[in-house]
Amino acid sequence: MEHEVEFLKERLKELEELTQLSQALSSTIEVDETLRTIIESCSTLCRASYALLSLLDPQSSEIVKTLVRSREHEKPTLDHRLHSLITGWVITNKQALRTENILELMKYKNPPESIKHIGPVLALPLAIEGKTIGVLSLANRLGERSFSDDTYRVAQIVSSLAAQFIRRARLHETLFEDNVRLKTELQRQFGNRTIVGETPAIKEVMNKVSIVASSTATVLLIGETGTGKELIARAIHTNGNRASKPYIAINCAAIPASLFESELFGHERGAFTGALEKRLGKFELANHGTIFLDEISEMPGELQPKLLRVLEERTFTRVGSAQEIQLDIRLIAATSVDLPQAVHDGKFREALFHRLNVIPLHLPPLRERREDIPLLANVFMEEFSRGLKHFSPDGLKFLQQREWKGNIRELRNTVERISIFVPSKEITSEQITSLGIAPEIKSTETNNSLFDSMLSENQSGEDVLSSLEKKMVQLAINKTSGNISQAAKLLGIDRNALQRRLEKFGL
After folding, report:
1. CB-based contacts of 68, cutoff 8 Å, min separation 6
2. Which residues of 249-261 are buried (b: 16+ CB within 10 A; e: fewer)?
3. Pairing relationship of beta strands 325-326 and 315-316 according to DSSP bridges
4. How far is Cα 310 from Cα 323, in angstroms, rounded to an integer?
5. How far apart are CA 491 and CA 253, in angstroms?
6. Which of 76, 334, 385, 469 could staple 229 via S-S, CB 3.0–4.6 A?
7. This prediction's pTM
Protein backbone atom coordinates (compact mmCIF):
# COMPACT_ATOMS: atom_id res chain seq x y z
CA MET A 1 0.00 0.00 0.00
CA GLU A 2 2.80 2.38 0.95
CA HIS A 3 4.56 1.60 -2.32
CA GLU A 4 1.40 2.40 -4.29
CA VAL A 5 1.03 5.73 -2.47
CA GLU A 6 4.62 6.69 -3.29
CA PHE A 7 4.07 5.67 -6.90
CA LEU A 8 0.92 7.84 -7.13
CA LYS A 9 2.72 10.78 -5.50
CA GLU A 10 5.53 10.53 -8.02
CA ARG A 11 3.09 10.36 -10.92
CA LEU A 12 1.16 13.38 -9.58
CA LYS A 13 4.39 15.31 -9.26
CA GLU A 14 5.27 14.47 -12.86
CA LEU A 15 1.80 15.54 -13.97
CA GLU A 16 2.15 18.86 -12.14
CA GLU A 17 5.57 19.49 -13.70
CA LEU A 18 4.25 18.60 -17.17
CA THR A 19 1.33 20.99 -16.65
CA GLN A 20 3.73 23.72 -15.58
CA LEU A 21 5.85 23.04 -18.66
CA SER A 22 2.82 23.33 -20.93
CA GLN A 23 1.79 26.60 -19.29
CA ALA A 24 5.31 27.99 -19.53
CA LEU A 25 5.54 27.09 -23.22
CA SER A 26 2.13 28.63 -23.88
CA SER A 27 3.33 31.95 -22.50
CA THR A 28 6.27 32.37 -24.87
CA ILE A 29 6.63 32.66 -28.64
CA GLU A 30 10.39 33.18 -28.89
CA VAL A 31 12.50 30.27 -30.11
CA ASP A 32 15.35 30.75 -27.63
CA GLU A 33 13.07 31.01 -24.60
CA THR A 34 11.04 27.99 -25.78
CA LEU A 35 14.20 25.88 -26.12
CA ARG A 36 15.50 26.88 -22.68
CA THR A 37 12.18 26.05 -21.05
CA ILE A 38 12.08 22.63 -22.71
CA ILE A 39 15.62 21.62 -21.88
CA GLU A 40 15.48 22.73 -18.24
CA SER A 41 12.13 21.02 -17.59
CA CYS A 42 13.14 17.81 -19.34
CA SER A 43 16.45 17.46 -17.49
CA THR A 44 14.59 17.90 -14.19
CA LEU A 45 11.71 15.56 -15.02
CA CYS A 46 13.98 12.84 -16.37
CA ARG A 47 16.71 13.33 -13.75
CA ALA A 48 19.42 13.70 -16.38
CA SER A 49 22.93 14.93 -15.64
CA TYR A 50 23.19 16.37 -19.14
CA ALA A 51 20.58 17.52 -21.64
CA LEU A 52 21.04 18.70 -25.22
CA LEU A 53 18.41 20.12 -27.54
CA SER A 54 19.29 20.52 -31.22
CA LEU A 55 17.10 22.44 -33.64
CA LEU A 56 17.20 21.49 -37.34
CA ASP A 57 16.73 23.49 -40.51
CA PRO A 58 13.40 22.22 -41.91
CA GLN A 59 14.77 22.11 -45.47
CA SER A 60 18.28 20.66 -45.13
CA SER A 61 18.04 18.92 -41.71
CA GLU A 62 21.28 20.69 -40.75
CA ILE A 63 21.73 21.53 -37.06
CA VAL A 64 21.29 25.30 -36.72
CA LYS A 65 21.22 25.61 -32.94
CA THR A 66 22.15 23.46 -29.95
CA LEU A 67 21.51 24.15 -26.26
CA VAL A 68 23.45 22.27 -23.59
CA ARG A 69 22.51 21.97 -19.91
CA SER A 70 24.73 20.32 -17.29
CA ARG A 71 24.13 19.65 -13.63
CA GLU A 72 24.62 22.59 -11.29
CA HIS A 73 28.15 23.99 -10.83
CA GLU A 74 29.44 22.03 -13.82
CA LYS A 75 30.52 23.70 -17.04
CA PRO A 76 28.46 22.50 -20.06
CA THR A 77 30.50 20.52 -22.59
CA LEU A 78 29.68 19.36 -26.09
CA ASP A 79 31.65 16.84 -28.11
CA HIS A 80 30.83 17.52 -31.78
CA ARG A 81 31.55 14.00 -32.99
CA LEU A 82 29.44 12.26 -30.33
CA HIS A 83 26.70 14.86 -30.80
CA SER A 84 26.74 14.25 -34.57
CA LEU A 85 26.64 10.47 -34.11
CA ILE A 86 23.64 10.58 -31.77
CA THR A 87 21.72 13.19 -33.77
CA GLY A 88 22.50 11.46 -37.08
CA TRP A 89 21.27 8.11 -35.73
CA VAL A 90 17.96 9.58 -34.53
CA ILE A 91 17.38 11.53 -37.77
CA THR A 92 18.22 8.54 -39.97
CA ASN A 93 16.16 6.01 -38.02
CA LYS A 94 13.34 8.42 -37.07
CA GLN A 95 13.03 6.81 -33.65
CA ALA A 96 14.35 7.13 -30.13
CA LEU A 97 17.81 5.91 -29.12
CA ARG A 98 18.18 4.34 -25.65
CA THR A 99 21.41 2.70 -24.44
CA GLU A 100 23.37 1.99 -21.28
CA ASN A 101 26.73 2.85 -22.86
CA ILE A 102 26.68 5.32 -25.73
CA LEU A 103 30.43 5.25 -26.43
CA GLU A 104 30.37 1.47 -26.76
CA LEU A 105 27.25 1.52 -28.95
CA MET A 106 28.69 4.13 -31.31
CA LYS A 107 32.12 2.42 -31.30
CA TYR A 108 33.66 5.73 -30.34
CA LYS A 109 37.40 5.06 -30.13
CA ASN A 110 39.77 7.28 -28.14
CA PRO A 111 37.12 9.68 -26.79
CA PRO A 112 38.36 12.92 -25.17
CA GLU A 113 38.57 13.05 -21.38
CA SER A 114 35.54 15.35 -21.22
CA ILE A 115 33.13 12.57 -22.31
CA LYS A 116 34.77 9.33 -21.15
CA HIS A 117 32.40 9.25 -18.18
CA ILE A 118 29.22 9.36 -20.32
CA GLY A 119 27.17 6.15 -20.18
CA PRO A 120 23.34 5.96 -20.38
CA VAL A 121 21.79 8.06 -23.14
CA LEU A 122 18.20 8.65 -24.22
CA ALA A 123 17.67 10.64 -27.44
CA LEU A 124 14.30 11.34 -29.04
CA PRO A 125 13.23 13.00 -32.29
CA LEU A 126 11.06 16.10 -32.15
CA ALA A 127 8.70 15.47 -35.05
CA ILE A 128 5.87 17.31 -36.75
CA GLU A 129 3.82 15.43 -39.36
CA GLY A 130 6.62 12.91 -39.83
CA LYS A 131 9.29 15.61 -40.27
CA THR A 132 12.08 15.71 -37.68
CA ILE A 133 12.60 19.33 -36.58
CA GLY A 134 14.92 18.64 -33.67
CA VAL A 135 16.55 16.08 -31.38
CA LEU A 136 16.35 15.97 -27.57
CA SER A 137 19.24 14.08 -25.93
CA LEU A 138 19.63 13.14 -22.25
CA ALA A 139 22.72 11.58 -20.67
CA ASN A 140 24.00 10.34 -17.32
CA ARG A 141 27.38 9.22 -16.05
CA LEU A 142 28.54 5.60 -16.18
CA GLY A 143 27.16 3.76 -13.16
CA GLU A 144 24.51 6.38 -12.52
CA ARG A 145 20.74 6.12 -12.99
CA SER A 146 19.64 4.50 -16.27
CA PHE A 147 16.71 5.80 -18.28
CA SER A 148 13.79 3.53 -17.33
CA ASP A 149 10.56 2.88 -19.21
CA ASP A 150 8.81 5.45 -17.02
CA THR A 151 11.49 8.04 -17.84
CA TYR A 152 11.17 7.17 -21.51
CA ARG A 153 7.41 7.71 -21.33
CA VAL A 154 7.85 11.13 -19.70
CA ALA A 155 10.49 12.13 -22.25
CA GLN A 156 8.13 11.15 -25.06
CA ILE A 157 5.43 13.42 -23.65
CA VAL A 158 7.91 16.29 -23.31
CA SER A 159 9.24 15.80 -26.85
CA SER A 160 5.70 15.78 -28.27
CA LEU A 161 4.84 18.99 -26.40
CA ALA A 162 8.17 20.52 -27.39
CA ALA A 163 7.71 19.84 -31.11
CA GLN A 164 4.34 21.59 -31.16
CA PHE A 165 5.54 24.68 -29.31
CA ILE A 166 8.80 24.91 -31.28
CA ARG A 167 6.77 24.91 -34.48
CA ARG A 168 4.61 27.70 -33.11
CA ALA A 169 7.64 29.73 -32.06
CA ARG A 170 9.34 29.20 -35.41
CA LEU A 171 6.23 30.22 -37.30
CA HIS A 172 6.17 33.39 -35.20
CA GLU A 173 9.72 34.10 -36.39
CA THR A 174 8.61 33.48 -40.00
CA LEU A 175 10.07 30.01 -40.31
CA PHE A 176 13.67 30.94 -39.66
CA GLU A 177 14.03 34.40 -41.13
CA ASP A 178 16.38 34.45 -38.14
CA ASN A 179 18.39 31.53 -39.53
CA VAL A 180 21.46 33.62 -40.37
CA ARG A 181 21.59 34.99 -36.82
CA LEU A 182 21.28 31.51 -35.34
CA LYS A 183 24.06 30.13 -37.54
CA THR A 184 26.26 33.08 -36.63
CA GLU A 185 25.65 32.39 -32.95
CA LEU A 186 26.53 28.72 -33.50
CA GLN A 187 29.74 29.70 -35.26
CA ARG A 188 30.70 32.04 -32.42
CA GLN A 189 30.05 29.37 -29.80
CA PHE A 190 31.73 26.41 -31.45
CA GLY A 191 33.99 27.97 -34.08
CA ASN A 192 33.89 27.83 -37.87
CA ARG A 193 34.27 24.11 -38.59
CA THR A 194 34.43 24.47 -42.38
CA ILE A 195 37.50 26.73 -42.49
CA VAL A 196 40.06 24.10 -41.62
CA GLY A 197 43.69 23.57 -42.45
CA GLU A 198 47.14 23.15 -40.95
CA THR A 199 49.34 24.37 -43.80
CA PRO A 200 51.15 27.71 -43.39
CA ALA A 201 49.26 29.14 -46.40
CA ILE A 202 45.77 28.75 -44.89
CA LYS A 203 46.97 29.65 -41.39
CA GLU A 204 48.28 32.94 -42.76
CA VAL A 205 44.90 33.64 -44.36
CA MET A 206 43.01 32.94 -41.11
CA ASN A 207 45.45 35.06 -39.14
CA LYS A 208 44.75 37.97 -41.47
CA VAL A 209 41.01 37.34 -41.23
CA SER A 210 41.15 37.66 -37.44
CA ILE A 211 43.02 40.96 -37.83
CA VAL A 212 40.88 42.60 -40.53
CA ALA A 213 37.53 41.41 -39.05
CA SER A 214 37.65 44.08 -36.35
CA SER A 215 38.19 46.87 -38.89
CA THR A 216 35.77 48.39 -41.39
CA ALA A 217 38.25 48.47 -44.28
CA THR A 218 37.30 47.13 -47.71
CA VAL A 219 38.71 43.66 -48.39
CA LEU A 220 39.51 42.16 -51.80
CA LEU A 221 39.61 38.35 -51.83
CA ILE A 222 41.72 36.93 -54.64
CA GLY A 223 41.70 33.26 -55.55
CA GLU A 224 40.71 30.63 -58.04
CA THR A 225 37.16 29.36 -58.31
CA GLY A 226 36.27 27.10 -55.39
CA THR A 227 38.97 28.27 -52.97
CA GLY A 228 36.40 29.41 -50.39
CA LYS A 229 36.18 33.15 -51.00
CA GLU A 230 32.59 33.45 -49.80
CA LEU A 231 33.39 31.35 -46.73
CA ILE A 232 36.20 33.76 -45.86
CA ALA A 233 33.89 36.74 -46.47
CA ARG A 234 31.36 35.25 -44.03
CA ALA A 235 34.13 34.62 -41.49
CA ILE A 236 35.18 38.28 -41.68
CA HIS A 237 31.58 39.39 -41.17
CA THR A 238 30.86 36.87 -38.39
CA ASN A 239 33.95 37.80 -36.38
CA GLY A 240 33.55 41.56 -36.80
CA ASN A 241 31.46 44.12 -34.93
CA ARG A 242 28.72 43.88 -37.59
CA ALA A 243 28.02 40.18 -36.96
CA SER A 244 24.47 40.86 -35.74
CA LYS A 245 23.73 43.04 -38.79
CA PRO A 246 22.74 41.93 -42.33
CA TYR A 247 25.12 40.01 -44.56
CA ILE A 248 24.18 40.16 -48.26
CA ALA A 249 26.09 38.18 -50.92
CA ILE A 250 25.83 38.97 -54.63
CA ASN A 251 27.28 36.96 -57.51
CA CYS A 252 28.04 39.62 -60.12
CA ALA A 253 28.35 36.96 -62.84
CA ALA A 254 24.77 35.80 -62.29
CA ILE A 255 22.98 39.14 -62.81
CA PRO A 256 21.95 40.25 -66.33
CA ALA A 257 23.62 43.55 -67.24
CA SER A 258 20.25 45.25 -67.83
CA LEU A 259 19.12 44.51 -64.26
CA PHE A 260 22.40 45.17 -62.47
CA GLU A 261 21.73 48.72 -61.29
CA SER A 262 18.23 47.91 -60.05
CA GLU A 263 19.48 44.78 -58.28
CA LEU A 264 22.19 46.69 -56.43
CA PHE A 265 20.49 50.02 -55.73
CA GLY A 266 16.78 49.26 -56.04
CA HIS A 267 14.14 51.18 -58.00
CA GLU A 268 11.01 53.27 -57.57
CA ARG A 269 7.62 52.24 -58.84
CA GLY A 270 7.31 53.07 -62.54
CA ALA A 271 11.06 53.67 -62.96
CA PHE A 272 11.03 51.40 -66.02
CA THR A 273 8.75 48.95 -67.80
CA GLY A 274 7.86 46.16 -65.41
CA ALA A 275 8.67 48.15 -62.24
CA LEU A 276 5.22 47.72 -60.73
CA GLU A 277 6.29 48.57 -57.19
CA LYS A 278 9.19 50.05 -55.25
CA ARG A 279 12.01 47.63 -54.58
CA LEU A 280 14.94 47.94 -52.19
CA GLY A 281 18.33 47.06 -53.63
CA LYS A 282 20.98 44.82 -52.09
CA PHE A 283 23.01 47.78 -50.83
CA GLU A 284 20.04 49.19 -48.94
CA LEU A 285 19.19 45.76 -47.51
CA ALA A 286 22.79 45.42 -46.31
CA ASN A 287 22.85 48.85 -44.64
CA HIS A 288 24.78 48.81 -41.34
CA GLY A 289 26.04 45.33 -42.23
CA THR A 290 28.27 43.72 -44.85
CA ILE A 291 27.84 43.34 -48.61
CA PHE A 292 29.86 40.75 -50.51
CA LEU A 293 30.37 41.22 -54.26
CA ASP A 294 31.61 37.95 -55.72
CA GLU A 295 33.29 37.92 -59.16
CA ILE A 296 33.54 41.71 -59.14
CA SER A 297 35.34 41.58 -62.49
CA GLU A 298 32.01 40.66 -64.12
CA MET A 299 30.42 43.99 -63.16
CA PRO A 300 29.37 45.88 -66.33
CA GLY A 301 31.73 48.72 -67.22
CA GLU A 302 28.97 51.36 -67.20
CA LEU A 303 28.09 50.50 -63.60
CA GLN A 304 31.64 50.61 -62.23
CA PRO A 305 31.72 54.44 -61.86
CA LYS A 306 28.46 54.29 -59.87
CA LEU A 307 29.89 51.71 -57.50
CA LEU A 308 33.02 53.85 -57.13
CA ARG A 309 30.85 56.84 -56.19
CA VAL A 310 28.98 54.79 -53.60
CA LEU A 311 32.24 53.64 -52.01
CA GLU A 312 33.68 57.14 -51.93
CA GLU A 313 30.62 59.14 -50.85
CA ARG A 314 28.63 56.44 -49.04
CA THR A 315 25.40 57.56 -50.69
CA PHE A 316 23.29 56.17 -53.53
CA THR A 317 19.97 56.74 -55.29
CA ARG A 318 17.38 54.22 -56.37
CA VAL A 319 16.66 53.93 -60.09
CA GLY A 320 13.94 56.46 -60.90
CA SER A 321 14.63 58.62 -57.84
CA ALA A 322 16.68 61.75 -57.16
CA GLN A 323 16.76 61.31 -53.38
CA GLU A 324 20.14 60.38 -51.96
CA ILE A 325 20.22 57.66 -49.31
CA GLN A 326 23.00 57.50 -46.74
CA LEU A 327 24.82 54.19 -46.57
CA ASP A 328 26.84 52.53 -43.83
CA ILE A 329 28.23 49.24 -45.08
CA ARG A 330 31.36 47.17 -45.13
CA LEU A 331 32.30 45.98 -48.61
CA ILE A 332 34.06 42.70 -49.33
CA ALA A 333 34.77 41.91 -52.99
CA ALA A 334 36.16 38.77 -54.59
CA THR A 335 37.70 37.89 -57.93
CA SER A 336 39.10 34.81 -59.63
CA VAL A 337 40.76 36.80 -62.41
CA ASP A 338 43.83 39.03 -62.52
CA LEU A 339 42.30 42.47 -61.87
CA PRO A 340 45.52 44.44 -62.58
CA GLN A 341 45.62 42.76 -65.99
CA ALA A 342 41.93 43.58 -66.50
CA VAL A 343 42.76 47.20 -65.68
CA HIS A 344 45.64 47.11 -68.18
CA ASP A 345 43.30 45.68 -70.84
CA GLY A 346 40.73 48.41 -70.20
CA LYS A 347 38.14 45.93 -68.89
CA PHE A 348 38.11 47.18 -65.31
CA ARG A 349 38.20 50.73 -64.01
CA GLU A 350 41.56 51.53 -62.39
CA ALA A 351 40.13 53.90 -59.76
CA LEU A 352 37.65 51.24 -58.66
CA PHE A 353 40.40 48.62 -58.44
CA HIS A 354 42.45 50.84 -56.12
CA ARG A 355 39.34 51.56 -54.01
CA LEU A 356 38.68 47.83 -53.64
CA ASN A 357 42.30 46.81 -53.11
CA VAL A 358 42.61 48.27 -49.60
CA ILE A 359 43.29 44.92 -47.94
CA PRO A 360 44.01 42.20 -50.51
CA LEU A 361 43.80 38.59 -49.27
CA HIS A 362 45.15 35.84 -51.53
CA LEU A 363 43.46 32.46 -51.04
CA PRO A 364 45.74 29.54 -51.94
CA PRO A 365 44.46 26.88 -54.35
CA LEU A 366 44.16 23.34 -53.01
CA ARG A 367 47.26 22.21 -54.91
CA GLU A 368 49.31 24.60 -52.75
CA ARG A 369 47.89 23.16 -49.52
CA ARG A 370 47.71 19.50 -50.46
CA GLU A 371 48.45 18.43 -46.86
CA ASP A 372 45.02 19.82 -45.89
CA ILE A 373 43.10 17.53 -48.27
CA PRO A 374 42.75 14.60 -45.79
CA LEU A 375 41.61 16.98 -43.07
CA LEU A 376 39.03 18.63 -45.35
CA ALA A 377 37.82 15.29 -46.69
CA ASN A 378 37.25 13.98 -43.16
CA VAL A 379 35.34 17.12 -42.15
CA PHE A 380 33.09 16.90 -45.21
CA MET A 381 32.49 13.15 -44.76
CA GLU A 382 31.52 13.64 -41.12
CA GLU A 383 29.11 16.37 -42.22
CA PHE A 384 27.44 14.39 -45.03
CA SER A 385 27.33 11.00 -43.27
CA ARG A 386 26.60 12.51 -39.84
CA GLY A 387 29.66 10.73 -38.47
CA LEU A 388 28.64 7.28 -39.69
CA LYS A 389 31.34 6.89 -42.36
CA HIS A 390 35.05 7.61 -42.68
CA PHE A 391 37.89 7.26 -45.20
CA SER A 392 40.55 4.57 -44.89
CA PRO A 393 44.21 5.73 -44.98
CA ASP A 394 44.56 4.64 -48.63
CA GLY A 395 41.28 6.42 -49.46
CA LEU A 396 42.63 9.68 -48.03
CA LYS A 397 45.93 9.21 -49.86
CA PHE A 398 44.01 8.70 -53.10
CA LEU A 399 42.11 11.96 -52.62
CA GLN A 400 45.32 13.77 -51.73
CA GLN A 401 46.86 12.78 -55.06
CA ARG A 402 44.09 14.28 -57.20
CA GLU A 403 44.47 17.61 -58.98
CA TRP A 404 41.20 19.23 -57.73
CA LYS A 405 40.99 21.91 -60.37
CA GLY A 406 37.73 23.06 -58.76
CA ASN A 407 39.55 23.32 -55.43
CA ILE A 408 37.59 22.95 -52.17
CA ARG A 409 34.21 23.14 -53.90
CA GLU A 410 35.09 20.19 -56.14
CA LEU A 411 36.48 18.20 -53.20
CA ARG A 412 33.35 18.87 -51.14
CA ASN A 413 31.01 17.84 -53.96
CA THR A 414 33.03 14.68 -54.57
CA VAL A 415 32.94 13.68 -50.90
CA GLU A 416 29.18 14.24 -50.86
CA ARG A 417 28.82 11.91 -53.89
CA ILE A 418 31.01 9.29 -52.20
CA SER A 419 28.96 9.48 -48.99
CA ILE A 420 25.78 8.79 -50.94
CA PHE A 421 26.90 5.96 -53.21
CA VAL A 422 29.41 4.05 -51.07
CA PRO A 423 27.45 2.05 -48.46
CA SER A 424 30.31 0.83 -46.24
CA LYS A 425 31.45 2.68 -43.13
CA GLU A 426 35.13 2.70 -44.16
CA ILE A 427 35.70 4.03 -47.66
CA THR A 428 38.74 2.78 -49.60
CA SER A 429 40.46 4.01 -52.75
CA GLU A 430 39.01 1.07 -54.67
CA GLN A 431 35.46 2.10 -53.74
CA ILE A 432 36.22 5.68 -54.77
CA THR A 433 37.51 4.63 -58.20
CA SER A 434 34.39 2.46 -58.67
CA LEU A 435 32.44 5.73 -58.89
CA GLY A 436 34.53 6.85 -61.86
CA ILE A 437 36.78 9.12 -59.80
CA ALA A 438 40.40 8.78 -60.85
CA PRO A 439 43.70 10.54 -60.00
CA GLU A 440 44.37 13.49 -62.28
CA ILE A 441 47.86 14.64 -61.33
CA LYS A 442 49.97 15.20 -64.41
CA SER A 443 53.72 15.34 -64.52
CA THR A 444 55.54 18.63 -64.86
CA GLU A 445 56.84 17.45 -68.23
CA THR A 446 53.31 16.86 -69.50
CA ASN A 447 52.17 20.26 -68.29
CA ASN A 448 55.18 21.95 -69.89
CA SER A 449 54.52 20.17 -73.19
CA LEU A 450 50.89 21.25 -73.13
CA PHE A 451 51.91 24.84 -72.36
CA ASP A 452 54.49 24.88 -75.17
CA SER A 453 51.89 23.46 -77.56
CA MET A 454 49.42 26.20 -76.69
CA LEU A 455 52.03 28.91 -77.17
CA SER A 456 53.07 27.51 -80.53
CA GLU A 457 49.49 27.83 -81.80
CA ASN A 458 49.51 31.55 -81.06
CA GLN A 459 51.19 32.93 -84.17
CA SER A 460 49.37 36.27 -84.26
CA GLY A 461 50.86 37.68 -81.08
CA GLU A 462 47.40 38.22 -79.57
CA ASP A 463 46.47 37.87 -75.91
CA VAL A 464 47.04 34.14 -75.29
CA LEU A 465 44.60 33.91 -72.39
CA SER A 466 41.82 35.65 -74.30
CA SER A 467 42.52 33.47 -77.31
CA LEU A 468 42.26 30.27 -75.25
CA GLU A 469 39.12 31.55 -73.52
CA LYS A 470 37.53 32.23 -76.90
CA LYS A 471 38.44 28.73 -78.10
CA MET A 472 36.94 27.14 -74.98
CA VAL A 473 33.72 29.10 -75.40
CA GLN A 474 33.51 28.13 -79.08
CA LEU A 475 34.15 24.45 -78.29
CA ALA A 476 31.45 24.45 -75.60
CA ILE A 477 28.93 26.06 -77.96
CA ASN A 478 29.77 23.56 -80.70
CA LYS A 479 29.56 20.59 -78.32
CA THR A 480 26.08 21.61 -77.12
CA SER A 481 24.84 22.53 -80.62
CA GLY A 482 24.37 26.15 -79.60
CA ASN A 483 22.58 25.51 -76.30
CA ILE A 484 23.87 28.36 -74.11
CA SER A 485 22.60 26.95 -70.82
CA GLN A 486 24.29 23.59 -71.39
CA ALA A 487 27.47 25.25 -72.63
CA ALA A 488 27.59 27.45 -69.52
CA LYS A 489 27.19 24.36 -67.35
CA LEU A 490 30.07 22.63 -69.16
CA LEU A 491 32.30 25.65 -68.60
CA GLY A 492 31.28 25.94 -64.95
CA ILE A 493 29.93 29.48 -65.27
CA ASP A 494 26.55 31.19 -65.17
CA ARG A 495 24.48 31.58 -68.35
CA ASN A 496 24.66 35.40 -68.10
CA ALA A 497 28.45 35.25 -67.73
CA LEU A 498 28.67 33.10 -70.87
CA GLN A 499 26.34 35.46 -72.73
CA ARG A 500 28.66 38.35 -71.95
CA ARG A 501 31.64 36.36 -73.24
CA LEU A 502 29.80 35.54 -76.46
CA GLU A 503 29.20 39.26 -76.97
CA LYS A 504 32.81 40.02 -76.05
CA PHE A 505 34.22 37.59 -78.63
CA GLY A 506 31.55 38.28 -81.26
CA LEU A 507 30.38 34.67 -81.33
Report:
1. 50, 51, 52, 76, 77, 78
2. bbbbbebebeebb
3. antiparallel
4. 14
5. 13
6. 334
7. 0.53
